[in-house]
Amino acid sequence: MISKMHLIKIAPLLSAMFVVVSGKGFPEISEFVVDEDRLSVRERNPCVPLKGSPLCMPKVNFGTGSSTHSLSNVSKLTSIWLDEVDGFGVDTAFNYFDEKQVGKGIANSAKSREEVFLTTKVGCDGYESSSEQALDNRKQLNLEYVDLLLIHNRHNCSGIDRLNGTWGTLVDEYKAKHARTVGVSNFNYTDFFRS
Known about the structure:
37% of the residues lie in helices and 15% in strands. The chain has helices at 4-21, 41-44, 74-83, 99-108, 127-141, 160-175; strands spanning 47-49, 56-58, 62-63, 89-91, 117-122, 146-151, 179-184.
């Protein structure tokens, strides 16, 4: 349940997103909130330590795969998220087709690369295809590594060989230090045991 205080704290962010989505420009977050009420996303939503890893994954990320904003706004929205909202998690994917804009938004941000937790994803398309996607992810983002590389979802995992091949890509990306950690997204426990 959302408390009144919680709503007061997030309302400026919701208002800012509405104005951006409606095409009225990019308001300054300061237009909506006074200094004593300002808490950064990092302060309100700390990260979750990843077991067996020195990484801490943010609880709240800016997800770029959405029909609510145009591709031309992704770079600006990424920078706003990182700088004005003080967010630090950014989530994109190969099939969002916005990684170049996300990379520009990170580069244009006042935050260093080390201050940003970047998640991207590949399809469950087997070793060769997912390896090409992972390489293209980094090229489009113009980054040496991502923090979290995921298999996007169980769709297209039509058999254990395809899943194993895609997982092999993630392992190779991790070993090559192109991904700091790896995992799956939108999977059920039983998905790992179907043939």
